[in-house]
Each structure stands twice: as structure tokens, then as C-alpha cells.
Design brief:
Layout (H helix, E strand, L loop, with lengths): L5 E7 L2 E2 L4 E4 L4 H5 L8 H15 L9 E6 L4 E5 L6 E6 L2 E5 L12 E6 L2 E6 L4 E6 L5 E8 L9
Antiparallel strand pairs: 1-2, 1-11, 3-4, 4-5, 5-6, 6-7, 8-9, 9-10, 10-11
């Protein structure tokens, strides 16, 4: 279920990826739960993940905390949270780095933003719901739809 009445639906190559809904940016299900959690409701996953960070002593910053939708399985990932412009992060040997783009864009009403980073392509659209798309170098196509009263726990359209 979505928390705080915000949520997301995430898809990779047209298949729903509930393991990328209401999760941390770079946490894996196997690391947190010991196995894939596709059948575990997102609301339960949130609490299990937070408990896991306490027990393991893992940093619990906003980068590792729960986000509504995460696109990507590799070192470059897109974070979609509440309403607004998605953020892009890359995991490098130096840590997690934010990829800056769109200077001066309104965070909530930015229209359509298209750009590339390395061999990735991104399209972000503000609206109801907000939409984010990412094309990866391996050909994987990610989509995330997120907004208020949207996502896991709400009916999929």
C-alpha cells in the first residue's frame, strides 16, 4: 500500500515491478528480506526495511530511506517521490552521486523534460499522474507513474 497517500507503479519492459515500489534507492530485496518480496505488500516492506537498517546499523539517510518508485537495476537509478521532478543517482566507487539536470525547472510544473546521460535516455512529464521513463544501455525500458492517491494500494488503471 502507498504510505502518506502517495505512491507509484513501476514497470520494466512492460512488466510491473512491485519490488521497485516503496523501496530504498539502492537496497536489494535479497539483502533486506533474504529473497524477492514481490508478494509482500509494500507497506510491510517499508517497516521491514526500516527495521533492517536499525538491526544492521546501515545508514538511514534520505538516500537510503524509502521512495515511492525506483527505476533501474544498475548503477544509475531514478528516484520518483511524491509529486515532482525525479532525481537521478549513480553509484560509483566514490559513493552515491546525484546527476544534476534541468537547472531552473519548476519542481512540480516542468512540462516535458528529455535528455541523455552517458548511454541512458530520460523523459519526465509533470501531470496527474507524474510520469518518468528511462531507457537503459542494455535496452531495458523503465516507466514510473506516481502521484498523490496513486500507486500501490490504489487501484491500477
Amino acid at each position: 500500500m502507498a504510505y502518506s497517500d502517495y505512491g507509484a507503479f513501476v514497470y520494466c519492459n512492460g512488466k510491473r515491478r512491485t519490488d521497485k515500489e516503496d523501496v530504498a534507492l539502492f537496497a536489494s530485496d535479497e539483502e533486506t528480506f533474504g529473497e524477492p518480496s514481490d508478494n509482500l505488500p509494500s507497506g510491510a516492506r517499508i517497516w521491514v526495511y526500516l527495521y533492517h537498517t536499525i538491526v544492521t546499523g546501515r545508514e538511514s539517510s534520505w538516500l537510503t530511506n524509502i521512495h515511492h518508485g525506483i527505476m533501474g537495476d544498475g548503477n544509475v537509478r531514478v528516484m520518483c517521490h511524491k509529486q515532482g521532478l525525479p532525481k537521478i543517482y549513480e553509484l560509483t566507487d566514490d559513493g552515491i552521486n546525484e546527476i544534476k539536470y534541468g537547472d531552473g525547472l519548476d519542481h512540480y510544473h516542468y512540462g516535458r523534460v528529455c535528455f541523455a546521460y552517458k548511454d541512458y535516455e530520460f523523459v519526465f512529464c509533470s501531470g496527474q499522474p507524474y510520469e518518468a521513463k528511462m531507457l537503459c544501455p542494455d535496452g531495458s525500458e523503465w516507466e514510473c507513474y506516481y502521484d498523490y492517491e496513486y500507486g500501490a494500494g490504489f487501484e491500477e488503471e
